[in-house]
């Protein structure tokens, strides 16, 4: 008689399970080796990453970095060996969930102790160069803003010159008797020339700082060009960062100098003094009518001074209200820190660094699926079909020995038979 459908299905499932087991047996021959290679590769990159964090190039530093990398390699190998063997073998949901949680925690630990150092080894130099390039952009924006503000403050010299010219013209008119009605260089003339002289002195101060502003800006651009070349120059990153830091300090000083050379605050203070600090001369008219005319004209001149001062103050306030240059400060970063700060720019490096550590997780899930398929094909029955020839011979010999030692059916107390010679 043929096999029943259930028996045929059982045999088919058992053959399917034996086929998968043969594949697993073959894969087991090199799985440990492959896992060891991955762990060793991760340890090498971890060693390179650790060296970027340690400044001392001595023997003990090398020994410490090597010890850490070996510990990481051993930890990764042992951890994934446990997962490859235990997680696919468990059957209950509670055990599987507990091991999956353990694997997740282990993956986090591996990333924390190894993957970020691997990323530092893969892209640490490029990350430091990115930090330098970003810093150059910040310094360039600060330099241009400081120069623009200084030039805007320097442009106030035209307003000062216009107000000073108005006082010069009024003083000439007063000398001809046009303002007070009495010609000569009396009290009104002295008030006008006093304010004109103050504005002329202010104008001279603004003229003096014009060339230093342009010189500082040109020098700053030269330093920026040197910093840009350092950010892309081939060679050791340590030496370049030292020179970059020196240029950054010098450029910060130039930006501060440009802020100090901005004449807008000087104009604002001078405009305030123009209205407040007025030395009224003694009226020197020969008659009461002349002195009354001088007094009236001086009051008008003082009103004009207040108006001109308000105009200069408003112009200076507009310049002072311009956005100030940002505080560009270069903070040196190690390769490991730079990789973290600019992680978004180095996603492929991070993906490679993490993948080399967490790739065995894919193998764990593959074996879990295959083991589940084996159990599903074989069911709950046990089989000895996977016995080797040697195991089969041993089993047959043991069965023969048991049959020889069994008592006879008519002699329950008979002694066990001894094997023949």
UniProtKB/TrEMBL annotation:
It comes from the Bacteria. Keywords: Membrane, Transmembrane, Transmembrane helix. The chain crosses the membrane at residues 26-48, 60-82, 94-117, 349-374. This is DUF4407 domain-containing protein. It comes from Paracoccus subflavus. The lineage of its organism: Bacteria, Pseudomonadati, Pseudomonadota, Alphaproteobacteria, Rhodobacterales.
């Amino acid at each position: 008689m043929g096999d029943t459908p259930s028996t045929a299905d059982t045999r088919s499932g058992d053959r399917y399970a034996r086929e998968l087991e043969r594949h697993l047996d073959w894969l087991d021959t090199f799985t440990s080796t492959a896992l060891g290679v991955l762990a060793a590769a991760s340890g090498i990159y971890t060693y390179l990453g650790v060296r970027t964090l340690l400044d001392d190039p001595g023997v003990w530093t090398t020994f410490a970095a090597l010890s850490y990398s070996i510990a990481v390699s051993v930890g990764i190998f042992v951890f994934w060996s446990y997962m490859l063997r235990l997680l696919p073998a468990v059957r209950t949901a509670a055990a599987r969930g507990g091991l999956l949680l353990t694997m997740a925690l282990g993956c986090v630990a591996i990333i924390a102790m190894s993957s970020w150092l691997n990323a530092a080894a893969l892209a640490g130099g490029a990350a430091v160069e990115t930090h330098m390039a970003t810093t150059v952009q910040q310094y360039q924006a600060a330099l241009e803003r400081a120069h623009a503000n200084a030039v805007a403050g320097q442009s106030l010299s035209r307003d000062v010159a216009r107000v000073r010219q108005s006082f010069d013209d009024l003083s000439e008119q007063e000398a001809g008797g046009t303002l007070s009605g009495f010609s000569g260089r009396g009290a009104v003339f002295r008030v006008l020339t006093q304010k004109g002289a103050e504005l002329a002195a202010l104008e001279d101060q603004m003229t003096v700082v014009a060339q230093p502003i342009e010189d500082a800006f040109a020098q700053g651009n030269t330093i920026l060009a040197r910093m840009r070349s350092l950010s892309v120059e081939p060679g050791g990153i340590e030496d370049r960062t030292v020179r970059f830091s020196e240029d950054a300090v010098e450029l910060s000083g130039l930006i501060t100098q440009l802020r100090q050379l901005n004449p807008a605050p000087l104009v604002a203070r001078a405009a305030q003094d123009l209205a407040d600090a007025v030395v009224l001369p003694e009226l020197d008219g020969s008659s009461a009518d002349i002195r009354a005319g001088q007094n009236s004209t001086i009051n008008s001149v003082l009103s004009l001074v207040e108006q001109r001062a308000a105009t200069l103050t408003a112009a200076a306030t507009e310049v002072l209200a311009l956005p100030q240059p940002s505080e560009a400060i270069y903070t040196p970063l190690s390769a490991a820190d730079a990789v973290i700060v600019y992680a978004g720019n180095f996603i492929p490096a991070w993906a490679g660094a993490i993948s080399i550590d967490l790739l065995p997780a894919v193998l764990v899930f593959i074996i879990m699926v295959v083991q589940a398929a084996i159990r599903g094909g074989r069911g709950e029955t046990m089989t000895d079909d996977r016995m080797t020839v040697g195991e089969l011979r041993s089993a047959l010999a043991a069965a023969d020995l048991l049959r020889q030692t069994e008592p006879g059916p008519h002699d329950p107390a008979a002694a066990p038979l001894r094997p023949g010679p």
